[in-house]
Design goal:
The protein is mainly alpha-helical and 468 residues long. It has one domain (2-467). The protein is 70% helix and 4% strand. The chain has helices at residues 2-16, 20-34, 39-78, 89-97, 100-118, 132-144, 149-178, 196-209, 220-227, 233-247, 252-279, 281-293, 313-332, 350-357, 361-392, 414-426, 431-467, and strands spanning 84-86, 124-126, 186-188, 301-304, 338-339, 405-407. It has a 3-stranded parallel beta sheet with strand order 5-1-6. Strands 2-4-3 form a 3-stranded parallel beta sheet. Helix 3 (39-78) packs parallel to helix 10 and helix 10 runs parallel beside helix 13 (313-332). The radius of gyration is 22 Å and the shape is globular. The termini are far apart. It is found in: Cell membrane.
Length: 468
């Protein structure tokens, strides 16, 4: 096993050290070349993807920082005492990539993906290798809780296979949300979409009990077409910035600064979302030609990072509304010790809500508010592991006291973190944890199977609609 780990680090470490944008530029360019795309077009697509990733990261940083400051002001006004600091996703990625096991898990999942493609168990080639850290941290946490490497690897493969299957299930919905043709190759294996099954449970409850709420839904695009700029993305940013600023007790100057920052970010998200589409156009044509000539028309998709869907205003409108809701829940939630700051803009929550509800904003907000406690409890549970690991790899934030705990409020895959905790402790042989872990894994698989069946029904409806 150590030989495999060393091999994975030798192969992938130089690439990972480049950073996400250069890495994905190289990966997309090389894949396009493999599909016989002209070099200049392949490079153009790769560079556009790198630019899009850089842009989306910069905008997320601006938005998160601005709202975190407002939330900090709110905390100071109320005198909250939550002793785990939310540092956001970046330190967690650093911590995870500081482990040699992460590149080992990457190698394992590359092999798994190839096997699934060869056996025709998926149509998705996952190229978003940087975000393997979301899956790796599950395996690392299982090891921290007592699992050996073999058990942790089995858990990573189990979840990883479902992630890849999920990317195929979501593909027609992405086409619908982007108004893209079937030849569009973009999908994603990102961990945040593994909340889809749980979200769908609540979405079905909505269908049964509260369908009448949909007629009051706030659709930014439709509202904009009816009443002009009042329903535009930047107007939504203005409204929400003012609301959060007032909640934080900011001065008029600060409130307007926050409002205009939010408005700018929502507009830029839409623009950058279009860059992702432009980036994969050359590859899309190459895949179409390859599938026609070599695969007898078989569809082949490319798994990217989630922000190619970031142009949908509902993601950010829901995230901004959920920000103060999450803070209020954190204040009263039993067992929570985590103060929402770095993750106050809930990117780990809202993309999955968008896919399952297909942009029904009221549902996104209500279901999001229901599921936020799972994220807060997960972040609280992982704080000792994250803090200890951060100190080992030198990623503990400066300015915090040595005895402080750190974590992340909206870390993708909260349910998977609980699975890692149960599996890790069950590995020690305690019968209670063995029973809980077995039940949790069975329940996790069964709800995914049910979700897959529902998504196949949805996809069949899409196909029937297009056939008319």
């Amino acid at each position: 096993m150590s030989t495999i780990i060393d091999l994975a680090n030798t192969v992938f470490q130089p690439l990972i050290n480049l950073g996400a944008a250069p890495l994905m530029t190289i990966v997309l360019t090389l894949i396009a070349l493999l599909f016989k795309v002209k070099f200049t077009k392949a490079l153009e697509g790769g560079l556009k993807l790198g630019i899009a990733l850089t842009g989306i990261g910069a905008i997320i940083n601006i938005l998160s920082t601005s709202f975190a400051d407002a939330m900090q002001s709110f905390v100071e006004r109320t005198g909250l005492s939550l002793n785990i600091t939310d540092v956001g996703w970046a330190p967690l990625a650093t911590i995870t990539w500081g482990s040699p096991y992460t590149l080992y898990f990457l190698l394992i999942m590359v092999i798994v993906n190839i096997v699934m493609l060869v056996l025709n168990r998926t149509n998705t080639l996952d190229v978003d290798i940087f975000d393997i850290w979301h899956l790796s941290i599950v395996g690392l946490f299982a090891i921290f809780c007592g699992a050996n490497l073999f058990i942790a690897t089995a858990l990573v493969i189990f979840i990883g296979v479902l992630k890849i299957i999920n990317s195929d299930l979501m593909k027609p919905t992405f086409n619908d949300l982007l108004n893209a043709p079937d030849t569009n190759p973009m999908t994603t294996t990102h961990m945040n979409y593994m909340m889809n099954p749980i979200i769908m449970v609540f979405d079905k409850i909505f269908d049964k009990l509260f369908p009448w709420l949909d007629k009051y839904d706030f659709d930014a695009a439709k509202l904009n077409s009816k009443i002009g700029f009042w329903g535009s993305k930047f107007a939504i940013g203005i409204y929400l910035g003012i609301f959060v600023g007032m909640l934080a007790g900011q001065t008029p100057t600060q409130i307007f600064a926050l409002a205009f920052t939010a408005a700018t970010c929502l507009e830029l998200f839409s623009m950058i979302g279009a860059w992702f589409i432009a980036a994969v156009e050359p590859l899309s044509q190459g895949i179409t030609d390859f599938a026609s000539n070599k695969l007898k028309g078989r569809t082949l998709n490319i798994g990217l990072d989630w922000p190619f869907i970031a142009g949908r205003a509902e993601i950010w409108a829901a995230a901004n509304v959920l920000a103060p809701i999450m803070l209020l829940e954190a204040m009263i939630l039993p067992g929570n010790k985590l103060l929402p700051l770095g993750g106050i803009i809930a990117m780990g929550v809202t993309p999955a809500l968008l896919v399952v509800t297909r942009g029904k904003l009221i549902r996104m907000i209500v279901i999001g508010a229901i599921e936020l406690p799972v994220f807060l409890w997960s972040g609280t549970l992982m704080a000792p592991f994250i803090t200890e690991t951060a100190k080992k790899v030198g990623a503990f934030p400066k300015g915090l006291s040595a005895d402080a705990l750190i974590s992340h409020t909206t870390m993708e895959g909260p349910v998977e973190k609980f699975l890692a905790y149960l599996v890790g402790n069950a590995s020690q042989g305690e019968i209670t944890f063995v029973l809980y872990a077995a039940l949790a894994l069975v329940a996790y698989l069964l709800i995914f199977v049910w979700y897959a069946r529902e998504m196949k029904k949805r996809n069949a409806a899409y196909a029937a609609e297009k056939a008319q």
